[in-house]
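Consider the following assembly input.
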Amino acid sequence: MGKRIVLGAVAILLVIAAAYASFYVAPEERTMGVLQRIFYFHVASAWAGMDAFLLCFIANLLYVWKRDQKYDWLGVSSAEVGLVLTTVVLITGPIWAKPAWGIYWTWDARLTSTFVLWLLYVSYLLLRTLIEEPERRALLSALFGIFAFIDVPLVFFSIRWWRTQHPAPVIMGGPGSGLDPTMNKVFLFSVLAMHVLAAFLIVERYMLEKMRSEVDTLRREAEAQ
Amino acid sequence: MTALRIPPTGLRFENIDKRYGGLFALRRISFEIAPGECVVLAGRNGSGKTTLLRVAAQIVKPTAGKLSFPGADAALPANGRPGYVAHTTMVYDELTAEENLLLFGKLQNVENPAARAEELLREVGLMERRDSLVRTFSRGMRQRIAIARALIHRPSVLLFDEPATGLDPPGITWLANSLREVNRAGCTVVMSLHGESEISALATRAVQLDAGRVIADTQSGASLHSILTFGSA
Amino acid sequence: MKNLNSVFEAYLIGWGVFFLFYVSIAKRTSDLRAEVERLKNALPRGK
Amino acid sequence: MSLLSNTAILLDKELRTEFRSRELLTTTAVFILIVLVLFSFAINPGTEEARQFAPGLLWLAILFASSLMFQSCFLREQTNDTLSSLRLAVSDPFAIFLAKLIANTLFLLLTELMMLPFFAIFYNIPLWSKLPVLILVLFVGSLGISIAGTAISAISAQARMRELLLPLLLLPLLTPVLVVSSLVTASLLDREPIVQWKGIGFLAVFDLIFLTALWLFGEYLLEE
């Protein structure tokens, strides 16, 4: 319990520090001005979300292999947190796009792939609600999670290579491609902060799932009496 | 009915658990069935008979514990699997009786599947309906084709879940005679039954289940009778 | 400082989503606690 | 080798039952036909833009039709618990999937071929000269749809609300197939046709990746 409170406090402090850094430490971007400061938050969420889904994939594989409930709990937790993070990406994206390009939604490869990714994990969580028996739910959702994750690169490249025939507006070349060193540092710090926040949320969600599974067992025993 | 091709095989359950969610369908099941025995599983509905038979048929994977077939070849070939008759027919309604038997015969590498299918159709008395879709069959005929399917690969272990379901009195006599014949030929028979009948008369041993546990296991005539009459009521 | 409100909007909505998610976890946890209490009371009587 | 012989036996069963009733073929064909007609009301089919949209619409129709077709794929094995008897009989459960996905690809391809003349007439697109490549595109696309669809139908058959669930699980998964095959088909049917081999190759890669995943994880889908 104590450790979880500490983790939560650290996560909040880091997120606030990252916000401070992206407003006051990072230099102003020349073409986009202050608007570019969404970048640190938006892209850091995207990266953390992707890593949460990666964690979900690993948990799914481990479940199929080891058949330990723990991995099932980790699977749901990381999928749900990943979904929250990608939701943030999908909300902040249009907020950024509107003043920058005058439209809310662009069918840009990254944003579109993120949206498909979001849909895939919504389906994953939906599937979980529709199977009653815990072992079967764990196994089948793990298998769907595996199929969904291997689909991710295919979705990305198919959209990138065939959907965007004209070059998409270059928002950021990603870190490394000409990003100012200070900007780069602030960006990496934001990514770290977002990962700690994600870790905290996953731990909290995991404890909830653990408890839910215990209550479920209790309830079944009570019904069987 | 069946000439045995594989060595007589027994069945051994070691600490078998099957859990569905938090609930145990089977709990610590341990007993052994010797090759050639004819065993009746008794118990109320929901006592775990069907689950135990499905575990023995290797359709359901036990949560814990080990299932083995003492006497069988070390590498159990596909056609050494038990013959299993379930509550459902386990055959295709959209195929004819003969097509069903051919399908399962070929899948299990039965030698000369056409001849084997014909032999079985004759035995279960469906020869004249061989080209009819199973969909058009009566309950009794469905049960006969289900039994034929289970026997197609000449198994050395037979697992019959309520095999008399849907059979008329002549059908039950026929089934009892067939089972006696296979059992004499060395085939191990495990079946779940409700009450006493010509079929239960074949049993030399009764195992009673309750709430997923073995609560009685007897070979003596008197207690066998009592388990069969009262235990499964 | 044009577009500053868009930036604030993005940060605030983002944080809001995280916060709501945390609240939902806390809510679901407390519901479960209540359920545990109920079951604990129900179980001994059933046995 | 027993995998291949088992697959052949099971494929024979799948084809025999389907061609006896022709339920899947007729329903999917009629469904695609209805969608093609309805689309022609939603967009103006005579225009030049329609020529560009039409291939995408065709693939969308195929995708929806396929998600109807896969409904019964594993569900019909539940009626008499034939899935259990199959699992007892085959030496490698992958044979069950392989037979089903080959059968589904064939059914899908057959309905597509039946619908192509209507498509060409309704949207005024001549396809005769590009037919071989078009069939290749239809094949790699339908194969991908069938591989993923067979896997997902094994999942959805074991859940509640399976009829609704199947498309929800399957369609997002098939985004890459839809994106690439409609573009490849569009450029193939353009006034100046181009064969996008890269796209056909991509679809083949999709098929291969999902086939491998099914081979690795398929047996767990059938676990009880």
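The longest strand of chain B covers residues 23-33. Ask yourself how this observation constrains the way the partners meet.
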